[in-house]
Write a structure and sequence with these properties.
Pfam families: DUF1801. This is YdhG-like domain-containing protein. The structure is a single chain. By secondary structure, the chain is α+β, with helices and mostly antiparallel strands. The chain has one domain: Aspartate Aminotransferase, domain 1, CATH 3.90.1150.200. It is 38% helix and 25% strand. It is built from 5 helices and 6 strands; from the N terminus they run ααββββαββαα. It has helices at 3-11, 17-33, 80-88, 110-121, 123-126, and strands at residues 40-44, 47-51, 58-63, 66-74, 93-95, 99-103. Strands 1-2-3-4-6-5 form a 6-stranded antiparallel β-sheet. A hairpin with a 6-residue loop joins β2 and β3 (58-63). It is globular and about 40 Å long.
């Protein structure tokens, strides 16, 4: 892990860091599962960002104003959130067209979240398909 990424993780409260680390690991495992190559990890707009070639970036974050929530951000000009909502409805909470909002302690819905991450990481191959090919 690069120093800037490690510093960003360490800037979050101790109780938040494990949740964000689990998301990081989940993104890496989905990329590996789909054989998408290396995940580029960086900071975008002050948040942890993950991307693979041919995919749409996924950012993760936390906000002091919502201390029990973790955010998984997607590019707002894609069909990702719209598709997730169509497929999974109220299983997830959403913030407009940009994020899935998870409770920090949330442990359910991992398979569904992995599916959403997989769609984002393969977005440019799927964007022309109805419901992204689901």
């Amino acid at each position: 892990m690069e120093a800037t990424i490690r510093e960003k993780f360490e800037s979050y409260p101790d109780e938040i860091q494990p949740s964000l680390m689990r998301l990081r690991e989940l993104i890496a495992s989905v990329a590996k599962e789909y054989d998408l190559g290396a995940v580029e990890e960086s900071l975008k707009w002050g948040e942890l960002s993950y991307c693979v070639k041919g995919g749409s970036a996924i950012r993760t974050g936390w906000r002091p104003k919502s201390p029990d929530k973790i955010f998984v951000f997607f590019h707002c000009q894609t069909k990702l959130i719209e598709t997730f909502n169509e497929i999974y409805g109220e299983l997830f909470s959403y913030e407009g067209k940009r994020a899935i909002v998870l409770k920090r302690s949330e442990t359910g819905s991992v398979q569904e979240l992995k599916h959403c991450i997989g769609l984002a990481l393969r977005y440019h191959k799927l964007k022309h398909l109805p419901l992204l090919g689901v």
